Amino acid sequence: MRIAIAGTGGLASWIAYYIQQETPHQVLLLSRSNQPAYESRGITVQVVDYNNAESLKFALSGIDIIVSTILGPSQLRLIEAAVRARVRRFIPAEFEGPPNLRPANDPLDRGRRAARERLYQYRNHIQYTIITCGIFYERFQPGGLSAARIGASSGFSGEGDYILNIRHMTAQVPVYDRNSQYTSICMTSARDVARYVVRALDLPQWPPELSVYGERMTVYDLVTLVSNLRGELLDKGTLIEPRVTRYAGGRLFDPVTWYVSEDMLRSELNQAVAANDIYRQRRVQTLIATAQGQYAFNNPNLMATFADIRPERFRDWVTRVWHLTEGGG
Fold it and tell me: Which of 102, 162, 201, 294 has a CB 3.0–4.6 Å from the CB of 289, allowing a cystine?
């Protein structure tokens, strides 16, 4: 089969790697510009213009499956071109929590719903499935998602942007949901997500959703685990007034609390909206989504289907990328 991957970021790179290493399939990378680094790995790169329907259709000639890692109008045009080029299968850029857990007017959507609706519209012409994997581990690595070349266009991909800043040991943790239950999240490394995606390419039939996680844990256990590994306690004081106290990574960094409720987060969101602070809005909206359980799910069917794959546990991953040892890092 010929597999086209739309995008050139970190997840696309891992998917291309495992297609090359573990399958006989040919891989084609769709990119807006030349990619010498990929070409040096023997990966064919096709420069495409997502605003040119005819050239996009031509680029997809003979392609069997498309895996998309791009969002917004470009992905919609890719879907249209795929149908016209008679591509058999399509995996859209989801790679988060289950879509059914998101609100109708999801502020973090970034065009995902429109892509799902477009694929459903063409369901008699192209088969598709959604990959659910929760939060990428890479949010917690040095440099954050951006260091893994994931989510660069989101404006919310830096180190410490989500829940926990491991370098400075500060955290803003939605410990409980509205029912006073511990908030849980599912997480997976981008590398493991790629492994499962590549294995799923050869499934004879795709269900509407394929899910996987490397770890499901409460956010309380997440920060406690890291605190134990670092040998440092998080600041557990609750701030009454937000104030700027640190300059980190080129951005004024708001002091964070060890524990926040959804009501506290909504109050902070209102302040961010009033200040037109888009970055802060995205950060708080993601924490609210976490408190609402949007990244927590059960019964990952990809893991049951490919039981021979052992995804890396979060403890092992965070210990490796931060060079930590029990009691101090």
Answer: 294
Global confidence as pTM: 0.90
Nearest CA to 225 out of 172, 177, 168, 164 is that of 164
Within a 10 A sphere around the Cβ of 329, how many other Cβ atoms? 15
pLDDT digits (tens, 9 = 90+) for 92-148: 999 999 999 999 999 999 999 999 999 999 999 999 999 999 999 999 999 999 999
Distance between CA atoms of residues 87 and 83, nearest Å: 6
* Phi-psi category of residue 297: left, alpha or beta, with phi > 0 → left and psi -120 to 50 → alpha: beta
Distance CA 194, CA 11 (A): 7
SS3 letters across 134-193: CEEHHHHCCCHHHHCCCCHHHCCCCCCCCCEECCCCEECCCCECCCCCECEEEEECHHHH
Res 139: pLDDT: 96
Pair 213, 311: CB distance under 8 Å: yes
Check: CB of residue 151 under 8 Å from CB of residue 161: no
The position carrying tokens 């210990």 is 319
pLDDT of residue 235: 54
